[in-house]
């Protein structure tokens, strides 16, 4: 199977990779898991807020790159998340006041390992940015299931 991202990935020859005009980098999930665990050691539960903020920033940029009706933007971002290796995104529910998404094969949960609490904070931040865009205001987003805790898939609920 050919990955569409690879066909659209450009290398400027000076250390910059771009996908659809946006700069990207390839980074191992274990690198991010080690960073997350170090932040947790230094900041405790505040580490999650820092990672969510990072996901929200990137997710905001990605969300802004999609046009069309809200449903199209949701489907576009979820498809992109799958294509760029963040796991298999699936839309469970989208209503005027809620967005529920599952992710199977989250690289964040896999690299983190066994956890007592949800660990996919970057994904939660991205989905918060998406939900803010399509729901019209910033929702409360919760990871209600996490593969790091033994669930079959990670599940995110955004609610106004």
- Backbone shape: globular
In round numbers, the mean pLDDT is: 95
Helix content: 40-55%
- N-end to C-end Cα span: 39 Å
* Main β sheet profile: 4 strands, antiparallel
Number of domains: 1
Radius of gyration: 15 Å
CATH class: Alpha Beta
Examine the secondary-structure arrangement and name the CATH architecture. 2-Layer Sandwich
Q: CATH homologous superfamily?
A: Trafficking protein particle complex subunit 3
**In terms of per-residue confidence, which ranges show pLDDT below 50 for 5 or more consecutive residues?**
none
H/E topology pattern: HEEEHHHEEHHEE
Helix tally equals: 6
Taken as a percent bin, the fraction of beta residues is 15-25%
Structural class: alpha+beta
Strand order of the largest sheet: 4-5-7-6
Task: State the total count of DSSP E strands.
Answer: 7
Q: According to CATH, what is the topology?
A: Muramoyl-pentapeptide Carboxypeptidase, domain 2
Task: Give keywords.
alpha+beta, 7 strands, 4-stranded antiparallel beta sheet, Muramoyl-pentapeptide Carboxypeptidase, domain 2, 22% strand, 160 residues, 3-stranded antiparallel beta sheet, globular, 6 helices
Q: Can you put this structure into words, describing what you see?
A:
This protein is of the alpha+beta class. It has a single domain (29-159), classed as 2-Layer Sandwich (Muramoyl-pentapeptide Carboxypeptidase, domain 2). The protein is built from six helices and seven strands; from the N terminus they run αβββαααββααββ. The chain has helices spanning 4-8, 29-43, 46-64, 70-83, 107-112, 121-135, and strands at 9-11, 17-19, 22-24, 88-95, 98-104, 140-145, 154-159. The chain starts with a helix and ends with a strand.
């Amino acid at each position: 199977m050919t990955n569409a991202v690879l066909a659209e990935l450009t290398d400027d020859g000076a250390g910059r990779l771009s996908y659809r005009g946006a700069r990207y980098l390839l980074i191992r999930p274990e690198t991010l898991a080690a960073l997350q665990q170090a932040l947790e050691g230094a900041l405790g539960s505040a580490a999650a807020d820092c990672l969510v903020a990072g996901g929200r920033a990137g997710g905001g940029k990605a969300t802004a790159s999609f046009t069309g009706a809200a449903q199209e933007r949701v489907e576009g971002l979820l498809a992109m998340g799958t294509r760029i290796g963040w796991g298999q995104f699936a839309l469970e529910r989208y209503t005027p006041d809620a967005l529920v998404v599952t992710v199977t094969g989250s690289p964040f949960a896999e690299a983190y390992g066994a956890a007592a609490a949800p660990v996919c904070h970057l994904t939660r931040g991205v989905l918060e940015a998406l939900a803010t865009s399509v729901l019209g205001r910033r929702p409360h987003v919760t990871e209600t299931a996490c593969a790091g805790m033994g669930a079959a898939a990670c599940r995110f609920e955004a609610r106004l």
